[in-house]
Amino acid sequence: MAWPRVARHAAIAAIALAAVPANLALGVSWQVAVPAGVAVLIFGELISLRSQSETSPAPSKPDPKPAGAGPLTRRELEIAGLVAKDMTNKEIGRQLFISERTVDNHVQHIYNKIGVDSRLALALWMRERGLLTESARLR
Q1: Does residue 13 sit within a domain?
Q2: pLDDT (tens digit per residue) in 69-87
Q3: Span 108-137, pLDDT tens digits
Q4: CA angle, 102 as apex, 85 and 95 as ends, to 5°?
Q5: Residue 69 burial (10 A CB sphere; 0-12, 13-18, 19+)
Q6: In terms of domains, do 78 and 128 share one?
Q7: Domain count, the chain
Q8: From residue 133, how far is each of 65, 79, 88, 128 by CA, in Å?
């Protein structure tokens, strides 16, 4: 269980504070009991920091775009490949689990980015750059 930071620090401090009177009750001199409490506090915080760094997810690197993809994102490249395979926006939406309107927005962004105005021109642009096989591999 991941404790919130404040609760973890409070728990470590409480244990460190309890260590001092516990050691005194055992007959340890205060000159040893106080440094022992401080040591508990320091080591508790160090372990806390270590466990935080181990549980932090490593930053993920995005998959590189295929060569020749130009300004298109991976999703746009995927949609452009399906458009080039002569699929309708409705069919693409069904396959990618997105709405037909979302597909239409992607297609319009693709047109604007690469400077074409038809599905045929988009398919030719994809073929000229060798991206038709790349887009199939993205799925």
Answers
A1: yes
A2: 678 899 999 999 999 999 9
A3: 999 999 999 999 999 999 999 888 764 444
A4: 45
A5: buried
A6: yes
A7: 2
A8: 13, 13, 19, 12
Cα(76)–Cα(15) distance, integer angstroms: 55
Question: In terms of domains, do 81 and 48 share one?
Answer: no
Check the CA dihedral 69-74-79-85 and report its sign.
positive
Q: First-to-last CA distance in the chain?
A: 36
HSE-up (13 A, CA, CB side) for residue 58: 3
> What region, left, alpha or beta, does residue 73 occupy, with left being phi > 0 and alpha being psi -120 to 50 degrees?
beta
61 within some domain: no
- Tokens standing for 60? 């993920």
Q: What is the pTM of this model?
A: 0.50
Q: How far is it, in rounded angstroms, from Cα 44 to Cα 48?
A: 6
* Neighbouring residues of 22: CB distance < 8 A, sequence distance ≥ 6: none
